[in-house]
User: Fold this.
Amino acid sequence: MKELLNVIEHNIKYNYITVKINFEKDKELKINGYQNEFKQSILNIINNAKDSINKKREKKNIDGLITIDIYSENNKVYILIKDNGVGIKKENLDLIFEPFYTDKKNGDGFGLYMAKLIIEDKMQGHIEALECKEGAQILIAIKSTTSKEGDYESSIIGG
Assistant:
């Protein structure tokens, strides 16, 4: 996750968005899968969050924030990515993972579809959009291969 965030750090700062990462300190979380495909899935979600924040800024002056919570429970690693952008309409929560579905002017509807294929078909995980009062929330759950107990820690990128 840190490697991925290093790659997008400049773009996030350029868009004046803060990324806050919360994770369990001193707890090693491992999942099986193709590292680059997994990074691409997370990148698609973060780019959608960035676009959503920028879309909301067209109408309202906001401090852009993307929060990534990484934790383990019941032998699974969970990654919850939240933003304070325009959000997802309740009726579209399931549709956003369908191929060619998009609400972006120049979108192709392929990013979240590919993320779903990678997470669910190749990594035997689960991805879903959750209802949210402000912005959007995407939850990923993947079977953990290793974990050890630890404390909770935060870090912030951008802003």
Summary: Residues 38 and 117 are 10 Å apart (CA to CA). The helical segments are 2-14, 35-57, 111-122. The radius of gyration is 15 Å.
